[in-house]
Structure formats: structure tokens, C-alpha cells
Design goal:
Length: 579
């Protein structure tokens, strides 16, 4: 049954003679069905189509209803007084044409021609929240295209922390001009010809950052009190992510990886020169390296700049201390007096303190502050009273006194920075008096000496200063020597001075066992002399040969050759020590 038949069936009064209304009138209704309406006019706004038409000629009988057709299919029926209606039931994006026909009591008109085509649309659906990812300072914002709702999406509006801009018809955007260290959230809206969607929910928050900027290097300084150099720098600009570490380079080589600090104390080789550079790191990695700092020399500590000779062979000189500046030449100057005058004592030092131990029938240990002249102060006692001609020391601050009498192998140790009695360290390989001693920062070597039967020795043995225990054979001197020989050293090379009737001096490489090698000769033959040194120069002073001597000679430790005149002690004497 058609829509028209259905209407006639349900509205019989419009197709029957008027007597169906029981009015008493008998006859038929005049006129005819309405003319065919003109094609409707249509317009669309979003998803609503407006359909308008004009009443056709009804031929004397009022139009009671209109049927509306969409794409040739009945859509709805409206009253005869209506000439405008709306359709919001179409599928978005589908093209539609509309037609109408009219009805009066006589019957139906024909169906009008079709309207022009229209397509219902709306603004796109709301997109889902964008996803974000960061690669250092670039944030990539991505989203999925929402439903276009009938007409193609033409672009997107991206909002960055509330500020919106059109980014075109794309589904990702690289945000590259953000402020490092600022948190950003993003929303996205889709745009088509109909309008702009609602904004999405916020993305997650993301903060752009990159590697730190190169730090600004500061002034590197030297501390001669402890043989260190200190590098300084200004904190690097973090560039959005906190600095967590610094790498420190000395002379171009990585020497330390530190936390978030701006200073570094470096213990390098004494008298070497250093410059520093640094780079900073955060979670993005390490940034550029700073420029190089100024160059400084890792100057030796005061104990290696100033040398002190102490003690002597008789009551007239056995408490004397005099000092020199090792790097220059000239006569020695009075320093002060030992707390107990004695000869055949041993000397050793830390970076700032000199310590003298043992001696003629003495177990006394006393100390001085190298930088300040004045009398020595009691430190403590050796474990055994003895002539103690040899002492060695380490950069870690431990000193070891070797044996001193012909029947003794004993070694004692102290912590130079404190005071107190010495503690047993171990034994030398051979009992002897009057050995010489040299040391690096870690190893001590005792050489020469004489047994209780006055048999002179060429034996050398070594210890690791930080570890107590007995000494181990090192090698042999080129000749026997004692009385005592006088010894000087750098951190790598040790030199043993002359003995009675000899002016020759020997050297060893302290880190490597083996026999000694001839170095050169002193300016004069003498015995019972003392030695002291910086890291580059050794000075031999005093001694006896044809009377007491006040001469001082010096050598450049790294270069073999004969000694040269340095100057004179303040008092001629032998059996002294140096530190």
C-alpha cells in the first residue's frame, strides 16, 4: 500500500462524497486534485536540511497534507498549511535531494521535481588527547584524526599551554621553540568546512631539555702545602634538566667523573704543569667541554722547597738546625735547635712537617714545622734506643725509621702528622748500622751500612711504606758504603752519596728492583754527610774528610753527572741528617 493509499484509507472523508459526514447533503465535491508543486528549495546548516516549497493551485479545495520525499523515498507527511520543514535524520556526508506532493479532498498531485542536492555535515568529533614524546629539546605531538562528520577535515588547531595556532592538515607536530625547562601540555581541535571541533583533553605534561652548556672554567690554583692543584668552574647552564655530573680533564685526559660540584682537587706529579677543562651531564648526556684553564705548576710542598740539616758529631754542634731553599743556591741559615742534641740521627718529612728520630744513644723523636723556623718539639720515642741513620716517608704521611746499630734489623714507623711513640714495622734483610734511605710516594729503599763487625755492605732492600712487614732484597750498590752515605730522592729516583775515601754517587729507579748505577761524583770526597731534596734537586751537606766539612753540593736528580757547589752550612759538622 502506498503512502497515498494509506492517507486515503485513514482520511476517507477527503475522497468520498460529502454524505459520509452525515450532513444531509447529497452529491459530489467539485474541483480537482492540486497541481504538482514546484521543486522545493533546500539549504543545509550542519546536519539539518531546511526544505521549503510553495503551495500549488488546489483548484478550490484546500490542501490538507504534503508528503516529503528524500532521494525518492517517502520521508514524512506534514499538514497542508506547512510550506517549510526540516530534516535532521540524514547520514552526515550523504548527498540528498527532496521532492513533495500535495493532497486535497479530491486527491493527490503528482510528485514535484527534485530539489538541488545538499549534504548534511557537522564539525568534526572531538579528538582524543594527543600523545607526546621528547627528544632532547624537541617535543613531538601526535594525534589521531577524529570522525570528520560529513566533510573532510582541512586542518587542526594545536593549543600549547593555552595558546592556539593552526598547524595544517597533519596528525603530528614538532614543537622545537619551547623554553628549555618549561613544562608543556597540548590540546588539539579538528577543523572542517562546517566548523571546529571541541578541544581534546590535555596531553600529558612534558618538559623540553638538552645537554648542559659548556661550563665556564675558572682559575686553577696550586697548593704547595700538599702538592695539589685545584680546578674551579662555574656551574653549567642545565638547559632544562638538572646537571648531575661533571667530567674533569687534566692536560686533555679524563682524570675524574664527579657529582654536581664545581671544584676538584687533583694530586698530580710534583713539579708537573697542568691545565684543566670540564664538561657537564644531565639525563640527556654530556655537553660540550669548557675551554682550558690557566696552566699551573704542581709545586712541591714546603718540605720539598725548604730543606733542613739537623744534628752533628759533637756537643758543640749536635743540636744545630740550619735550612736552605733547595731551588736556589747559597749558604744555609739558622733554623733553631733540636730538643735533644745528637748525631747519627735520621730525618723524614711530610708535606709540612720534618721529623728527626734516634741518634747517639737516643730514642728521641722530635719534629719541626718546615715553614716556620724555631726549635724542635718532642714527638715521642723510638721503640728501641739506637743510632738511626735512615728514614723513609710516603705521600700518605707515614714515616719509617730503619735500623741504626750493627746488630739491629729493626724498623719502626710513625704517622708524621700526629705525635706519639713509634710502632714496630718489621725487619731489614741484614742487621746493619748507618744505612742510607730513599723513598717514592709508596716505596722505601735502605742501602749500604756496616755490620757489628764493621763489615761495610752494598746491600739494598725495600719496603712498601703503607704495609708493615719485613724488607725484601732490592739489589746492590756499585760499591760498599756506610758512615753514613747521605741520600736524596725524587718521587721516582733515589741517589746514594759517598763514603770514606769516595766521592762517587749511585742511583736507582725506586719502583724497579735491580742494582744501582753510577750517577757521578761529589765536588769533594767526604763521609758521614747528609742529604735532602725536592722532586728535582738533591743537596748533600756536611761530612768529614780531613776535618769537619761545611760544603754543600747539589745534583739535578733526573740528570746524571757530577755535583755542583751549592753553598756552606752555618756550622761545619758530620753525622748530621737532612729532611
Amino acid at each position: 500500500m502506498s503512502h497515498r493509499d494509506n492517507f486515503i484509507k485513514t482520511n476517507k472523508e477527503f475522497s468520498k462524497p460529502m454524505d459520509i459526514f452525515n450532513t444531509g447533503f447529497v452529491g459530489t465535491v467539485g474541483g480537482s486534485a492540486p497541481d504538482i508543486p514546484s521543486a522545493p528549495n533546500v539549504s543545509v546548516e550542519a546536519n539539518t536540511v531546511t526544505i521549503s516549497w510553495s503551495h500549488p493551485d488546489a483548484h478550490g479545495n484546500a490542501i490538507d497534507v504534503y508528503n516529503i520525499y528524500r532521494n525518492g523515498v517517502y520521508l514524512k507527511q506534514v499538514t497542508g498549511s506547512t510550506t517549510t520543514d526540516w530534516d535532521s535524520t540524514g547520514t552526515l556526508g550523504t548527498s540528498y535531494v527532496y521532492a513533495v506532493d500535495a493532497h486535497n479532498v479530491i486527491g493527490w498531485s503528482g510528485v514535484s521535481a527534485n530539489s538541488s542536492a545538499v549534504i548534511p555535515t557537522t564539525a568534526p568529533s572531538t579528538p582524543s588527547a594527543p600523545s607526546v614524546s621528547r627528544s632532547t629539546s624537541t617535543i613531538t605531538v601526535s594525534w589521531s584524526a577524529p570522525s570528520a562528520n560529513g566533510t573532510a577535515i582541512t586542518s587542526y588547531a594545536l593549543t600549547i599551554n593555552g595558546s592556539s595556532s593552526n598547524v595544517g592538515n597533519v596528525t603530528s607536530y614538532a614543537h622545537t621553540n619551547g623554553t628549555l625547562g618549561t613544562a608543556y601540555v597540548y590540546t588539539i581541535s579538528a577543523i572542517n568546512a562546517t566548523g571546529t571541533s571541541s578541544a581534546s583533553a590535555n596531553s600529558s605534561s612534558v618538559t623540553p631539555s638538552t645537554v648542559p652548556s659548556a661550563p665556564t672554567i675558572g682559575t686553577t690554583t696550586d697548593d704547595s702545602s700538599n702538592s695539589t692543584v685545584t680546578a674551579n668552574w662555574s656551574a653549567a647552564t642545565a638547559n632544562g634538566n638538572a646537571v648531575t655530573a661533571y667530567k674533569v680533564y687534566a692536560n686533555g685526559s679524563l682524570v675524574a667523573t664527579l657529582g654536581n660540584v664545581t671544584t676538584y682537587v687533583y694530586t698530580g706529579t710534583r713539579d708537573a704543569t697542568y691545565y684543566f677543562a670540564v664538561s657537564a651531564s644531565n639525563t640527556n648526556g654530556y655537553g660540550a667541554t669548557s675551554g682550558n684553564s690557566n696552566t699551573v705548576t704542581n709545586e712541591a710542598p714546603f718540605s720539598a722547597i725548604r730543606g733542613v740539616f739537623a744534628g752533628g758529631n759533637s756537643s758543640s754542634n749536635d743540636n744545630v738546625m740550619d735550612y736552605i731553599t733547595i731551588a736556589s743556591t747559597g749558604n744555609a741559615t739558622d733554623f733553631g735547635n733540636l730538643s735533644d742534641g745528637r748525631g747519627y740521627l735520621a730525618g723524614l718529612s711530610s708535606e709540612t712537617r720534618g721529623v728527626f728520630g734516634g741518634g747517639s744513644s737516643s730514642n728521641v723523636i722530635d719534629y719541626i714545622t718546615m715553614a716556620s723556623t724555631g726549635n724542635a718539639t718532642d714527638f715521642g720515642n723510638l721503640s728501641v734506643t739506637r743510632n738511626c741513620r735512615a728514614g723513609v716517608d710516603s705521600s700518605a704521611g707515614r714515616g719509617v725509621f730503619g735500623s741504626g746499630d750493627g746488630d739491629f734489623t729493626k724498623m719502626d714507623y710513625i704517622t708524621i702528622a700526629s705525635t706519639g711513640n713509634a710502632t714496630d714495622f718489621g725487619n731489614l734483610t741484614v742487621a746493619r748500622a748507618f744505612p742510607g734511605g730513599v723513598s717514592s710516594d709508596v716505596r722505601g729503599v735502605f742501602a749500604g751500612g756496616a755490620t757489628g763487625a764493621n763489615i761495610k755492605l752494598n746491600t739494598m732492600d725495600y719496603i712498601t711504606i703503607a704495609s708493615t712487614g719485613n724488607a725484601t732484597d732490592f739489589g746492590d750498590l756499585t760499591a760498599v758504603r756506610s758512615d753514613p752515605p747521605g741520600s736524596v730522592n725524587s718521587v721516582t729516583r733515589g741517589i746514594f752519596g759517598a763514603i770514606s775515601g769516595w766521592s762517587s754517587i749511585n742511583y736507582i729507579t725506586i719502583a724497579t728492583t735491580g742494582n744501582a748505577t753510577n750517577f757521578g761524583s761529589l765536588t769533594q770526597t767526604r763521609y758521614a754527610l747528609a742529604g735532602l731534596s725536592s722532586n728535582t734537586r738533591g743537596v748533600f751537606g756536611g761530612g768529614g774528610w780531613g776535618g769537619l766539612r761545611n760544603e754543600m753540593d747539589y745534583v739535578t736528580i733526573a740528570t746524571t753527572g757530577n755535583a755542583a757547589d751549592f753553598g756552606d752550612l752555618s756550622v761545619a759538622r758530620s753525622r748530621l741528617t737532612g729532611t
